[in-house]
Amino acid sequence: MRLALIRHGQTDWNLRGLMQGRTDIPLNLTGRQQARAAATGIDRARWDLVVSSTLGRARETAAILAAELDLPVAGAYDDLVEQDFGVAEGSSVAEIDVRWPGRAFEGKEPDDAVGPRGVRALERIAVEHAGARVLAVAHGTLIRHVLGELSGHDPRSYPRLDNLAVSELERAGAAWLVRTVGGVPYADVLPSLVAVGADDADGAATHVAA
Q1: What is the pLDDT of residues 124-164, one digit of tens each?
Q2: CA distance linking residue 14 with residue 30, whole number of Å
Q3: Which residues contact 165 (CB under 8 A, 6 or more apart)?
Q4: Residue 16: is its pLDDT beyond 50?
Q5: Which runs of E-coded beta strand occur in 15-104?
Q6: Per its UniProt record, what PROSITE patterns does this chain match (predicted)?
Q7: Which of the four pLDDT bands, split at 50, 70 and 90, describes residue 204?
Q8: Of 32, 73, 101, 151, which one has the fewest beta carbons inside 10 Å?
Q9: What is the mean pLDDT of the chain?
Q10: Catalytic residue annotation
């Protein structure tokens, strides 16, 4: 199956540079326009359905994409929600490292839990929509952690993903292969990644499902 992880559209907190996490901030007008514009660049014939995280900004982005592409919305998944940043949510991202050196926020979801949680969502989607080609709307940090978990790289070394950036995965047997990162071929992103594992021999990052 093929699956694309798509970051949701802009919110007012994105615009103001605030840490968002699990706080359920809706899309703003620009975010809705971004979703409609992104749909024009997606080949509807390559995809079968749309899913999302359970947070409102992801659900609304998914609904707009589905309407524009005439695809069904086929569910929302708790394991696709953004990392919980605890007490840091609502704070200026520019001040985070000064206020919390090492980003040790009280109430924060552990970094090493985020990627495996996201991969669990992929596995559930693969079971519930076997063989389908799925657009999955989620969140920037969650997506980077998933990509890092799949490729064996530090998620912090993945580039920041813009709103509506699309990262494509392919499931081959029991493995997930990372094909693109924010629309850029994985092979082009690879030189900038910090390895904490091994890469597949053909240059496509791979993760074998448990």
Answers
A1: 999 999 999 999 999 999 999 999 999 999 999 999 999 99
A2: 11
A3: 6, 7, 182, 183
A4: yes
A5: 49-53, 73-77
A6: PG_MUTASE
A7: low
A8: 101
A9: 94
A10: 8, 82
CA distance 191 to 193: 6
CB-based contacts of 9: which residues, under 8 Å, 6+ apart? 27, 30, 31, 32, 33, 34, 35, 57, 60, 61, 64, 163, 164
Q: With beta carbons less than 8 A apart as the criterion, state whether 162 and 37 touch.
A: no
pTM, rounded to two decimals: 0.93
**Cα 121 to Cα 76: distance, rounded to the nearest angstrom:** 10
Residue 33: what residue type? Q
Q: Where are the domains of the chain?
A: 2-208
Q: 134 with 51: CB under 8 angstroms?
A: yes
Count CB atoms within 10 A of the CB of residue 206.
20
pLDDT, tens digit, for every residue of 20-48? 999 999 999 999 999 999 999 999 999 99
Q: Which fold has domain 2-208?
A: Rossmann fold (3.40.50)
